[in-house]
Design goal:
Elements lengths: L4 E2 L2 E2 L2 E7 L5 E5 L2 E5 L1 H7 L1 H9 L9 E5 L4 H12 L10 H13 L3 H12 L5 H10 L8 H9 L6 H6 L2 H20 L12 H12 L41 E4 L11
Amino acid sequence: MANNSQNGVSRVHHHPEYYLKDGNITFLVENTLFRVHRHFFERESQFFIHEFARAPQEGTSDTSAFRLDSIISADFAKLLWVWYSPMYRRDAKPKDHWLVILELSTKWKFPDMKKLAVDELQKLEIDPVEKIVTYDKYEVDRSLLLPAFKLLCKRTNRMSSEEGEQLKMSTVLGLHEVRERAIRSAAESGCRSPTSADAEDGVLEQILNEVFSLSGHTTNRAQGPPPSVPIINPPRPDANGTANRSSTSGSVSRSFPFESMYRSADWI
């Protein structure tokens, strides 16, 4: 399908990698059509289960594609990559790649995919302020932020006003309390002119846990090896042309009528 424009209206085109001949659900993202396997969305996402149930005939063809708004086609392709990239070819991906997957898996309620994104982000070097802001935004287990909080408390330079504005006020105030308590602890241990970096690691961690209740959060906390995210062997459709379902998840947005062609804080 050509990607061109007629009378100022952008025409849709097939995604070069994720428009599959044996796919059985079609999505429209921007002006790109994706045809993939409904099975994965139904198995893993309660959001898509609900959406598919609301409009069972939508997504069955290009002319009735489910339209996904507030997302760009390149980001949707990143989400699909999780299923369609064979494990033996899964190259290391940068931070921004996994942040997109974290955002979409949170938005569309893919818990296993969200855990995968968090596990991969945990392997990367991320600025501590950015990590705290990101994990809070997507409601990731705060116990995973202990190293980031420690870095902020141990560094000698002041927090910039830009960093303070990114963090919640409760987080800024909490960090101030932690640093003050860490300084007192170092002074009580005999350190002259102490800073929060002079506090023992165990003491600092205990203070952080108390101030931010880090040990009480369990969402996304690793418990043994992370669950494997299935890599596709395309499901075979049944007699009705629908892939066999397994338990859990999946659903989407509105149909697209093809004929209408769219359309502070200073650190202490």
